[in-house]
Design brief:
Layout lengths: L1 H24 L14 H4 L2
């Protein structure tokens, strides 16, 4: 029974560590504009 508690504790610690690692890697990237401005001369034709 004691070995089972140790294994469960190790699994919990590893899971918490993995969650912390994943949460620290998720950063929002700054927005970048994809569209390019279109001049009105190109639209008249």
């Amino acid at each position: 029974m004691s070995r089972m508690v140790v294994v469960a504790g190790v699994v919990v610690v590893v899971l918490i560590g993995a969650l912390f690692l994943l949460s620290s890697r998720a950063h929002e990237k700054p927005q970048t504009r994809v569209e390019q401005p279109v001049s009105l001369a190109n639209l008249q034709g």
